[in-house]
TrEMBL record:
<keyword id="KW-0238">DNA-binding</keyword>
<dbReference type="GO" id="GO:0003677">
    <property type="term" value="F:DNA binding"/>
</dbReference>
<dbReference type="InterPro" id="IPR049159">
    <property type="entry name" value="PF0610-like_wHTH_N"/>
</dbReference>
<dbReference type="InterPro" id="IPR036390">
    <property type="entry name" value="WH_DNA-bd_sf"/>
</dbReference>
<protein>
    <submittedName>
        <fullName>Transcriptional regulator, ArsR family</fullName>
    </submittedName>
</protein>
<dbReference type="Pfam" id="PF21476">
    <property type="entry name" value="PF0610-like_N"/>
</dbReference>
<dbReference type="InterPro" id="IPR036388">
    <property type="entry name" value="WH-like_DNA-bd_sf"/>
</dbReference>
<keyword id="KW-0805">Transcription regulation</keyword>
<dbReference type="InterPro" id="IPR051081">
    <property type="entry name" value="HTH_MetalResp_TranReg"/>
</dbReference>
<dbReference type="GO" id="GO:0003700">
    <property type="term" value="F:DNA-binding transcription factor activity"/>
</dbReference>
<dbReference type="InterPro" id="IPR011991">
    <property type="entry name" value="ArsR-like_HTH"/>
</dbReference>
<keyword id="KW-0804">Transcription</keyword>
<dbReference type="InterPro" id="IPR001845">
    <property type="entry name" value="HTH_ArsR_DNA-bd_dom"/>
</dbReference>
<feature type="domain" description="HTH arsR-type">
    <location>
        <begin position="9"/>
        <end position="83"/>
    </location>
</feature>
Amino acid sequence: MLEGDDISRLLDILGNRNRRRIIQLLRQKPCFVTEISDRLMISPKAVIEHLQLMEREQILLSKNDRSRRKYYYLSRDFKVVIDLENIPAALLPEEIAVIDKKNEFFSLLAATNKLLESRDSILSDLEYIERDIDRKISDLKVTGKDILASETEFNLVLALSSCEMTLGDLEEFSGIDLTELSGVLDGLAAKGIVKRTGEYYKVCDIYAE
């Protein structure tokens, strides 16, 4: 049975809502840092700090698996019984409510920061893809300058390379009058670049037999 300073230290540890949530999760099964972070929506840095504190107090133990990933588990299960007749209340209910609300705020703040970091990473990837697309389009224009007669032909071929489109679709896409548009498409068909199947136009498959 714990007494004196040991009890005070344990209560200090369990006074943190996120540490209590981590203990509750580890009651179910041992977990890696990433599992705890993802399940509880707490930043990995905060999870590591909580785990290290509880490991120092021997509430938790850790082991490395075959991949040398460290997972944590409870050293022993326990419960805390507080005798209100013998131990005076340290905090008023409204003070506990404020602490819980503050812990919830910081938990949400960490989760929001994690989402913001994910968004920044995605935006960075999108920026790279956009630059790559611009380079490829420039290469296409250079390669097709002796094949395509105009920017209009290039734009139509580029649009038809991703999907089949009707004349009406192409009119809406390009903003070109139907008569002029039909002439451009006929010219592309004559070059063997575009073909019409029923109502739909598409880029020719150069590998088709």
